[in-house]
Amino acid sequence: LPQRLAALATTAQEEARQSQQHLQAQQQEVTRLQEQLSRARQDGERWASALQRAQREALEREATRGAEQARQQELIRDMKGRLLELLREKDALWQKTEGIDTPMPSPVPRDVGFCSRCQKDFRLLSRRYNCRLCQGKVCHTCSVDVSKQGRCCLLCYQQKHLQGT
């Protein structure tokens, strides 16, 4: 019996040693897993911080883009308004210049003995006038008195009168 008890004690010691080794291995595994968990938490915190920073930057970019878009829309509105003003001004100028397409009368040589408009012969009773605008020779019928400035031919007078309105 003492031998049997010694064998049982040896077996129990061996089992206790194996259990202790198994416990140490499990403790090492727990320590390794705790370190991994700690690293994973740190990574998670870094990723959460990076995500918050990216969201904040995205919101700032969106706000900047919204402000830029509003500024561009205002600029477009201003440009459309200016375009309308220019179109109105162009139309007004076009209306003022409509009908001015007629060419200016060409100057007539000075030594002509006929009216440059009606071809009437200048004689003793038909006086010759110099048009103050085109310098042509015209008779009394084909000219207009423009007060102190002298006389001008009807064509120059009509063109000048249309430009003034």
TrEMBL record:
Species lineage: Eukaryota, Metazoa, Chordata, Craniata, Vertebrata
Keywords: Coiled coil, Metal-binding, Zinc, Zinc-finger
Organism: Turnix velox (Little buttonquail)
Ranges in coiled-coil conformation: 9-57
InterPro entries: RUFY4_dom (IPR059036), Znf_FYVE-rel (IPR017455), Znf_FYVE_PHD (IPR011011), Znf_RING/FYVE/PHD (IPR013083)
Domain of life according to the entry: Eukaryota
Domain FYVE-type: 109-161
Family matches, as SUPFAM superfamilies: FYVE/PHD zinc finger (SSF57903)
Protein name as annotated: RUFY4 protein
Entry-linked Pfam families: RUFY4
One example GO MF annotation: zinc ion binding
Range of residues in the leader sequence: none
PROSITE patterns per UniProt: ZF_FYVE
